[in-house]
Amino acid sequence: MSGLLAFRHVKNKGSQRLSLSWFSSSGFSRFLHSLPFATVNAEEVSGSKPAEVLNLVQGKWTRSSSWNTIPDPLNGESFIKVSEVDEKGIQPFVESLSKCPKHGLHNPFKAPERYLMLGDVSMKAAHKLSLPEVSDFFAKLIQRVSPKSYEQAFAEVYVTQKFLENFCGDQVRFLARSFAVPGNHLGQQSHGFRWPYGPVAIITPFNFPLEIPVLQLMGALYMGNKPLLKVDSKVCIVMEQMLRLLHDCGLPVEDVDFINSDGKTMNKILLEGKPRMTLFTGSSRVAEKLAGDLKGRIKLEDAGFDWKILGPDVQEEDYVAWVCDQDAYACSGQKCSAQSLLFMHENWSKSSLVNKLTSLAARRKLDDLTVGPVLTFTTDAMLDHMNKLLQIKGSKLLFGGEPLQNHSIPAVYGAIKPTAVFVPLEEILKENNYELVTKEIFGPFQIVTEYKHDQLPLVLDTLERMHAHLTAAVVSNDLLFQQEIIGNSVNGTTYAGLRARTTGAPQNHWFGPAGDPRGAGIGTPEAIKLVWSCHREIIYDVVPTKSPPPCRRSLATTARSLVIPPHTPPPEARNRCGIILLVVKSFSFFSLNVFVGSNYKSFVGYRTLPDQDLRLSIVLNPEPIFLKLKPEA
Ligand SMILES: NC(=O)c1ccc[n+]([C@@H]2O[C@H](COP(=O)([O-])OP(=O)(O)OC[C@H]3O[C@@H](n4cnc5c(N)ncnc54)[C@H](O)[C@@H]3O)[C@@H](O)[C@H]2O)c1
Asked: Which residues form the Aldehyde dehydrogenase domain (predicted)?
């Protein structure tokens, strides 16, 4: 997700923060012990001093009987112990979900002060994350568990901070803004409200340990839900620490449950606890399983096989090459938005783009984590995939294709050089090859292809056959070209123009797939409202239909005093609308009869509060008008 924007922010600040070694020697480490919320020191976590991650349920931090040890992705040492709940320990989490009613912890009619409380929590949390010692703590903790360059890790913290800033003060209640439409008759009006689901679940992957869980968690809370959060165990330490920060900022401890478990146990909780909505971010394989198990009560942010098309207008080669390198290889390609397939117009193939890409990729090194461990594919799995691709007619290795050297990354993880394989466009489209070429490899790996000017329909056909529609980029300032591609594709987050990219979506962009009714979004007010609330319509219809109900109590005195003698209004006001002011002393609901002479003229009902002024519009007549107030039951 995030990336380029915050990267520039760091650069603009003149930061020299490029390597872990710089970090260790920097003065930031002295702050770590003074962070009141933190229970770990990111720099000190190691095999000899492992950190512990707990669960949070019904307002209490708890340990389970079993511990999962997480290997340090850089050296294999068991450096984090995660207290994991197994299938026998799920009851407190199921109970906690069932304690939250369907109408949520708050809604526009219930506990509205919570909207303000959450605005306040967001403000304090945003401020905390803006403190250098706190952003540094989280950036570094992210680096320990999901190794990426400091810039990339910092980008996550920065985007999270900006997101929280966006929902300070009244902005949370504005998310629940309603609207009204006039009805068919007096007293009728329909109102549309954003309604919570109540108990909900959030499941997030390993690659953005802070940004994805915080943005989805806060969105769920803002709209009035009670979330159960599960983050991939490999990286859950980051969110555990963030929850402690949120509590420090005033978030009630009972508002969020946090569970560490394997996928199977979480699946069981979802089936037994029956959250009204589950937001799943992760692979398409698990997404499809859960969509079936949960009978559709789910929204998905699943796999990305993201493409970029370089249009006919070749310009700013250096910049375009730099963005291609960032899109494909930053975070070692472990972004759901990473560039997986690059279509080059023949004009670009004649340029120096591939040479530039080759040298940019070659600059990446393990030292500063600009390339690093791949957490869900082994080295062999990625190289096997590459070898299968290289058997396709006309395909060739452009660069990379080798394991990283001189490292201690454990064998359960992958470590390869940034890699690009060229596959001819006609071959991609062949039945036997299509699935192989468009398989998402969550690592520093991309496919490159070329198209001639008259082959654009083949490019569009390739896009049409894909099943994942997350991010895309149309790199061209040719408006007709842009229009052709955008009009014939569906990706949810699509960048268009010379500076187009596939990654880097900050908090001010909608980020999510399109073309799937289950598709979720993250980041913006629209994404929060779509994912975390449903529409509820309340139709007010308060006016009785025919005659006034029987009088329960005489109001003779009041009625008499309301007789309006003839000719009271000035002559010019006759036969027009006039205003009569009534002061209602004791009734909260009453009906009003209007008599013109001896004829019953009309009947209306009003709800008001005692001592409230009531203005009535009636037709003034030369004849006496009698107004009678009748109380309702
Ligand atoms: N669309 C997006 O916004 C987005 C963002 C980040 C990552 N991703 C995708 O995520 C994938 C990489 O992440 P991953 O390998 O961690 O994904 P994954 O699907 O293996 O795991 C994601 C989460 O689901 C949990 N899980 C696994 N099986 C489960 C089950 N049966 N029931 C409940 N929970 C279960 C895991 O423990 C983890 O917390 C890639 O495909 C990537 O494209 C998508």
From this structure: 72-493
* Annotated catalytic residue within 84, 151, 240, 301: 301
Respond yes or no: is residue 301 known to be catalytic.
yes
201 touches 299 (CB < 8 A): no
pLDDT in tens, 31-62: 445 799 999 999 999 999 999 999 999 999 99
* Pairing assessment for the beta strands 66-71 and 396-399 based on DSSP bridges: unpaired
Residue 576 lies in a domain: yes
Please provide the average confidence, as pLDDT, over all residues in the chain: 86
Q: What is the rounded CA–CA span in Å between residue 610 and residue 582?
A: 11
Question: CB burial class (10 A; 0-12, 13-18, 19+) of residue 479?
Answer: exposed
Question: What are the tens digits of pLDDT across the range 536-586?
Answer: 999 999 888 764 444 333 333 333 334 444 444 433 333 333 334 444 444
Q: Domain check: are 310 and 299 in the same one?
A: no
Please give the distance, rounded to the nearest whole angstrom, from the Cα atom of residue 362 to the centre of ligand 1.
Answer: 30
368 and 229 in a common domain: no
Options 84, 336, 440, 450, the catalytic residue: 336
Instruction: Report CA(267)–ligand 1 centroid distance (Å).
Output: 13
CA 284 to ligand 1 centroid distance, Å: 8
Q: What is the pTM of this model?
A: 0.84
Specify the pLDDT at position 544: 82
From 339, 459, 442, select the one nearest 385 (Cα to Cα).
442
pLDDT of residue 1: 53
Average pLDDT on 76-97 reads 97
Give the whole-angstrom CA distance, residue 123 versus residue 128. 9
The interface pTM score, or ipTM, of the predicted complex is: 0.98
Q: Would you tell me the crossing angle of helices 211-222 and 150-166 to the nearest 10 degrees?
A: 10
Domain with 481 in it: 306-506
**What is the tens place of the pLDDT at every residue in 275-305?**
999 999 999 999 999 999 999 999 999 988 9
CB count in 10 Å sphere of residue 618: 18
Considering the domain architecture, whether residues 124 and 163 belong to the same structural domain is answered as yes
Is the pLDDT assigned to residue 596 strictly greater than 60? Answer: no
How many domains does the chain contain in total?
Answer: 3
Q: CB under 6 Å to ligand 1: residues? A: 203-207, 230, 232, 263, 266-267, 281-283, 286, 289-290, 301-304, 336, 376, 440, 442, 470
260 Cα: distance to centroid of ligand 1 (angstroms):
14
Closest ligand 1 atom to 304 CA: 43
- 317 an active-site residue? no
